[in-house]
Design brief:
It is a single chain. This protein is of the alpha/beta class. The protein has 17 helices and 13 strands. The strands form two sheets. Strands 1, 2, 3, 4, 5, 6, 7, 8, 9, 10 and 13 form an eleven-stranded mixed beta sheet that branches. Helix 7 links the parallel strand 3 and strand 4. The longest helix has 30 residues. The relative contact order is 0.13.
Amino acid sequence: MINENLILETINMIKLYNLDIRTVTLAISLRDCAGEDVDLVCDKIHKKIIKYAKNLVEYANELENDYSIPIINKRISITPISIVGESCKNPDYVKIAKTLDNAAKEVGVNFVGGFSALVEKGLTRGDELLIEAIPEALASTERLCASVNVASSKAGINMDAVLKMAETVKRAAELTKDRDGIGAAKLVCFCNSASDNPFMAGAYCGYGEPECALNVGVSGPGVVRAAIEAMPSEADMSELANKIKQIAYKITTTGELIGRKLAAKLDIPFGVIDLSLAPTPAEGDSVAGIFQAMGLEHAGAHGTTAALAMLNDAVKKGGIMASSHVGGLSGAFIPVSEDAGMIEAASKGYLTFDKLEAMTSVCSVGLDMIAIPGDTPSSTIAGIIADEMAVGMINKKTTAVRVIPVFGKGVGDKVVYGGLLGEAPIMPVNGLSSEKFVQRGGRIPAPIHSLNN
C-alpha cells in the first residue's frame, strides 16, 4: 500500500540528489483509427490524441506542485503505426508522422513514441513502408520517436530486418547531419521490446494494452549513490544490495503515488511503473557514479559488469515489493551520452564497445546513445545490431541498439545535443568487415529454450 509518510522521507532525495519522476507516459491505442483513406486516418489519430492527452501536461504540473516532486517529461506512446497505416490504400507514413508530431505539440508533451513496427519474424508491406519512411519522418518532425523490434527469444533474429535497420539508421543520421545526426538518436532497434515501456525512444502501446493507460518511469541514480557513499567502507556486497533495495522501495512508492494520482485525475487506468534508474548529464545523477561509490575506480574497470548486475537485481527486488504493477524495462540504463560518468569514462577510453556489450547482458536495455564515426559502413552497424540482439535473444531479456553515426566527425570529436540527451564522444568501432555475414539475410533461429510451451 502507498504510505504518504514514506513519501515525505524522500524530500531530501529530491532536493539534494536529483530524485524525480523521469516520465509520465500516456499510452493510447490507435487501432480504431485504421482505415482506407490516409487523410481520414490522420484526422482520427489527431482527434484521439487530443481527446485523451489534452489535460496530461496541466494535471502533471498540478501534481508536481502539490507534492513538490519534479516530473521531468510528459509523453505519449501509441499503437505501432505500421499496424494503423497499412490499412490505407495509399499509405503515407510521413504524413502520419507529421500528424503525430503536430498533436504532440498541441498537447505540449515532450515526445510521442510508437512510429514503430514489430518484425522479428518477418515484414508485412506496411512494415516495409514504415521502415522506409523512418529517416524522412524523423528529419521532418521534432517530437517523434521510432522503434523497430527485429528479434525475440521466441522467433530468433530477422537478419533481413537487421540490415534494413542498419541502412535506416545511417539514412536518418544523414538527413539530420546538420544537427549531428539527431534523427538516429530518436530511433532504436529492439529484441524482446516491452509493450508498456514509458521511456523513449522505444515506447509504444502494445497490442495487448488497454484503450488508454498511464505508465510511469522513475529515476534516482544520485539517491542510490549517496546512500552507498554514506555506508561504512567495510560494508559487504549483501549490505550494499540491501541498501539499494531499500532506496528502490522508496523511489518506487513515490513514482506509484504520482502515477495513480495522475491516472485518477485523467480518469484512466494506471498501467505500470518502470523501475529503471534513468541517469542524466547532471552532476551526481549518474549510474557510473554508483559504480565508483561501490569501490570501482571508474566505470569500465574490471568488475563493472558484476556491479551492474547487482544494482539491476537489487533495484528490481526493492521495487517489486512496493508495487504490484512493475513493467516496462526496469533496472538500470547505461546510455553513454545521457550519463555524466559514462561520458567521462568513454572520453578517457575506459569504456569500449566490447565492455559496453558485456554490460548489456545484465542491464535493462543495451547499447544506448553511442556516437560513432559517420563513415561507419551500414554492414558494421548491422553487425553491432545483430550482436546485441543475440544477447537479448539468448538471455530472454530486452536489449536495444541506439547508435548515432555522426557525418563529418570521427574518433576524438564529440557531439553536444543538450538537455537530457547530453553529449557524447565519437567512439571507435571494430574495423573488421561484417558485410558477407550480414548480407546472408534470412532468420537466425530461436534458441532451444524458446520451446517452453
